[in-house]
């Protein structure tokens, strides 16, 4: 219940600033439009009706979905945690009889809830995912959950560098670029030469490219299982980092300020 | 004799800081050769606090009193020595059963969700501390009534005044009825009547529930109003541990009386020194009675006998060589 309340509070905090939410969505929409027009120009000037087997209308849908996913897979917890360490407000969190990571996950979930609802509705009503049999549907849902958990663990592990770095804001453009390039936000990774095919199993691609292909019904059951395996593997790596780094970080934490 | 609820035994804590050189050449030099220095924030401090005691920690800025609170609450680990609460709990381990029994209010750190009303944070705390709903409702109603913030329960925190926020921070620290309450600067930014309200409330709480209170403040009124015992920390060392009256009698060396009158004294009595037109000083050791007509006296203060004056003198002393 305490974690559900954390999720509820995070959602309410997100909705408290309606103007910010609308502006955020507006900016995302503009970015998506720019990317779509760029790709349509590429199709038009190349004179080809498909690129790497992807037709223009499929590309448009892909770009819309992958950008909604970028809203769900936010890297904000890194900067939030950095703020807690820098201001010393982490002390308040440490004084509560709770698991910080579990609470942080529910907070993360609460903030992404409006976008998760959009993705969920698209999965339920537009995507063929739930119409391909029970096993396929269940596997897809497990992959979504697993990828979401993996991504959260991964960015939480990255956030622990805040214990030693006073400012982590330089990471923001780096992470945006990683999601844009490695996550397939600017283009589907399938357009890359075969030598780079392994890139589709990096954490950003699993969260962006692979979940978009899943929603569009482009992943076979075997591909879902393979992506799930990779997501699990990355989650274990992130958990390992958290287990090792957190105790060291908490010893170096000085609770600055008063 | 019951064992102390808090035992600090020869605790030490130091941290590493960096010094930066001025100018561009200094910045360039620091880029490759950063100068580190170790600051001993707490040095060999021992302290015992019994259940139900109210202990005031006094010290200048950077003296180490907040660091000592952080060691006692488990925010920081001791480098050497030992800190135990409830006989066997090591604070830094932060066991949930231990955290359930302490309440912490750090005045410059907020528990409250900035964009939401305080009630939302308090309901979250109810779940975190597993407080039964009925008990929560009754206790919260009592706390908000005592601190006069009931109407603000549903107002977003960002819209509250500083004083109202501080009161809600105090409520957050008390909502689970902790056995030990740590208060760091509890009345910062609070008006005089609200301060008096908080003092009265905390005193009553301590009396009724035997809650142990550890308090740091720069405001000596806080300490005089609440603390049964004070520990003075200076440059990381404990230099005094006893009652406030004990502190005053130990350090008040020159009993000098400051007198303000409504009219100038003509002629000036013997042993009376004029500071300005109606302001005089008298060495109290030189006289047995005041040589001034009581009808003209507006106020009499014993200079250097107040806690403020003693602390000013103590804190201005040089740091001990290490």
Structural features, described:
The complex is a heterodimer of chains A (258) and B (322). With 258 residues, chain A is mainly α. Chain A has one domain. Chain A is built from 10 helices and no strands. Chain B has 2 domains: 6-245, 3-Layer(aba) Sandwich (Rossmann fold), CATH 3.40.50.300; 254-303. In chain B, 32% of the residues lie in helices and 28% in strands. The two termini of chain B are 37 Å apart. Chain B has helices at 23-32, 65-73, 96-99, 118-128, 133-146, 162-174, 192-209, 220-226, 244-251, 307-315, and strands at 6-19, 35-49, 54-58, 80-85, 102-106, 180-184, 212-216, 229-234, 237-242, 256-261, 272-276, 279-283, 297-303. In chain B, strands 5-6-7-3-8-9 form a 6-stranded mixed sheet, sandwiched between helices. Chain B has a 4-stranded antiparallel sheet with strand order 11-12-10-13, with no helix packed on it.
């Amino acid at each position: 219940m305490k974690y559900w309340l954390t999720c509820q509070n995070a959602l309410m905090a997100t909705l408290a600033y309606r103007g910010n939410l609308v502006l955020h969505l507006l900016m995302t929409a503009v970015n998506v439009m720019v990317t779509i027009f760029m790709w349509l120009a590429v199709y038009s000037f190349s004179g080809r009706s498909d690129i790497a087997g992807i037709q223009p209308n499929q590309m448009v849908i892909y770009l819309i979905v992958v950008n909604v996913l970028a809203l769900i897979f936010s890297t904000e917890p890194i900067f939030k945690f950095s703020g807690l360490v820098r201001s010393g407000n982490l002390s308040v969190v440490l004084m509560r009889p709770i698991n910080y990571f579990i609470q942080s996950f529910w907070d993360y979930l609460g903030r992404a809830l409006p976008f998760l609802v959009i993705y969920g509705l698209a999965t339920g009503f537009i995507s063929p995912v739930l119409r391909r049999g029970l096993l396929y549907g269940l596997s897809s849902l497990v992959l979504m959950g697993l990828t979401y958990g993996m991504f959260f663990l991964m960015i939480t592990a990255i956030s622990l560098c805040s214990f030693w770095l006073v400012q982590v804001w330089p990471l923001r453009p780096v992470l945006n670029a990683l999601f844009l390039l490695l996550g397939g936000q600017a283009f589907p990774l399938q357009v890359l030469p075969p030598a780079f095919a392994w890139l589709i199993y990096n954490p950003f691609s699993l969260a962006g490219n692979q979940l978009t292909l899943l929603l569009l019904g482009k992943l076979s059951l075997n591909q879902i299982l393979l992506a799930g395996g990779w997501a699990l593997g990355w989650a274990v790596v992130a958990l390992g980092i958290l287990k090792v780094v957190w105790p060291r970080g908490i010893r170096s934490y000085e609770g600055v300020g008063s | 004799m019951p064992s102390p609820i808090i035992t600090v035994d020869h605790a030490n804590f130091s941290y590493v800081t960096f010094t930066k050189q001025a100018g561009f050449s200094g910045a360039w030099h620091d880029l490759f050769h950063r100068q580190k220095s170790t600051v001993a924030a707490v040095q060999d401090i021992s302290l015992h606090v019994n259940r139900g005691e109210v202990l005031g920690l006094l010290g200048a800025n950077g003296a180490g009193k907040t660091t000592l609170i952080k060691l006692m609450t488990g925010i920081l680990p001791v480098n050497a020595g030992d800190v135990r609460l409830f006989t066997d709990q090591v604070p830094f381990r932060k066991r949930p059963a231990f955290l359930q029994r302490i309440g912490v209010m750090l005045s410059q750190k907020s528990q409250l969700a900035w964009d939401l009303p305080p009630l939302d944070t308090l309901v979250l705390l109810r779940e975190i501390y597993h407080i039964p709903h009925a008990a929560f409702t009754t206790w919260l109603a009592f706390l908000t009534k005592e601190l006069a913030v009931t109407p603000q329960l549903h107002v977003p925190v960002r819209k509250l005044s500083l004083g109202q926020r501080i009161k809600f921070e105090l409520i957050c620290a008390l909502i689970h009825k902790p056995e030990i309450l740590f208060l760091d600067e509890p009345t910062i930014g609070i008006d005089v009547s609200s301060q008096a309200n908080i003092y009265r409330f905390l005193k009553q709480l301590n009396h009724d529930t035997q809650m142990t209170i550890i308090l740091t403040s720069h405001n000596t009124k806080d300490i005089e109003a609440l603390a049964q015992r004070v520990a003075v920390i200076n440059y990381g060392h404990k230099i005094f541990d006893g009652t406030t009256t004990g502190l005053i009698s130990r350090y008040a060396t020159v009993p000098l009386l400051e007198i303000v009158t409504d009219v100038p004294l003509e002629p000036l009595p013997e042993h009376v020194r004029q500071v300005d037109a109606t302001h005089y000083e008298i060495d109290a050791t030189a006289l047995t009675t005041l040589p001034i007509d009581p009808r003209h006296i507006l106020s009499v203060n014993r200079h250097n006998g107040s806690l403020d004056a003693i602390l000013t003198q103590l804190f201005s002393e040089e740091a001990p060589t290490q």
